[in-house]
């Protein structure tokens, strides 16, 4: 029996597609950096689960029109504006994803990441060409040795 998919089922399907895409992307980045190892699989799985939950909450929040607040009625019947629960969840899961990316070494603190991608190889080649033409005067050890007067 084939029927129409509910909005919730469409969101879940899209989140699973995104999770598969993210798995391939993360593994490709780690391999290109030479950091990929099977020991990272549990951490990658936790990251992918966080991505899935984030994506679901994000799409649900998107369906509400990205409302930042929601009307809430307390026990006494007073109505107050509160931060939208889905907005809070998106924020929480976004932070969790960031922390897990940090643990995988894939945040912007990793200087190697600036060269990941199709344009990165061109930038890396240019940087290597510049480095080969210049002596290593910016190296602290070389500077220290030069001050001491020895090259050993």
Automatic annotation (TrEMBL):
- Chain residue ranges for the region called Disordered: 124-152
Q: What is the name of this protein?
A: Terminase
Name the Pfam families on file. Answer: Terminase_4
Point to the regions of Basic and acidic residues compositional bias.
124-134
Q: Which InterPro entries does the record associate with it? A: Phage_term_ssu_P27 (IPR006448)
From which source organism is this entry?
Enterococcus plantarum
């Amino acid at each position: 029996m084939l029927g129409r998919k509910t909005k919730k089922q469409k969101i879940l399907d899209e989140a699973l597609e995104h999770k598969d895409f993210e798995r391939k992307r993360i593994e490709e980045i780690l391999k290109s950096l030479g950091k990929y190892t099977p020991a990272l699989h549990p951490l990658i799985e936790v990251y992918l689960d966080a991505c899935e939950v984030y994506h679901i909450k994000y799409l649900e929040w998107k369906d509400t029109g990205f409302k930042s607040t929601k009307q809430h009625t307390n026990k006494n019947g007073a109505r107050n504006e509160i931060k939208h629960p889905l907005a809070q969840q998106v924020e929480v899961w976004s932070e969790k994803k960031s922390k897990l990316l940090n643990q995988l070494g894939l945040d912007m603190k990793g200087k190697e990441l600036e060269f990941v991608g199709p344009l990165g190889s061109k930038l890396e080649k240019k940087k290597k060409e510049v480095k080969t033409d210049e002596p290593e005067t910016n190296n602290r050890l070389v500077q220290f040795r030069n001050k001491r007067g020895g090259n050993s």
